[in-house]
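Minutes, project check-in
Item: structure for the 137-residue chain
Input as provided by the requester:
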Amino acid sequence: MAEKELISAKGGKLNFGDLGRKEKAKLDGFSLGGNIYKVKTFCELTKLERDEMFVYESEPGTDVSDFDQTADGLEFDVTGTQDTMITVGLIEDTGYEVFENGVSVGTMKTNLGGKLSLSVSLEPGKTTKIRIVKANG
């Protein structure tokens, strides 16, 4: 069986992570849209950096697909095996509305470092769509 790619891109969107991996793995130097990405992943943690800046982290590890970040927020599909803490890097001290599978779960504010953390209940074999958009006002 071929080993899963740690990071890839399709249609300008990133796919990364390998929650089934028992040993830590990382890949540095993946280029997309003029940015350089680095991923670290295994069953306990998945982390993504862009140009040496924090973008995404999950504990335990997750598989992420169709990851797309814009000026107004980001969206991605995530697969995991249990309740997972996901932290993303956005604009500091800014309010964002968070959606899970199209349903708003509330508005949250990033900290002074621009990080926003959310707990997501993930089930094996099921994908959850996350969308985080800058709140009005």
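Outcome recorded: The domain at 7-134 is CATH 2.60.40 (Immunoglobulin-like).
No further action items on this chain.
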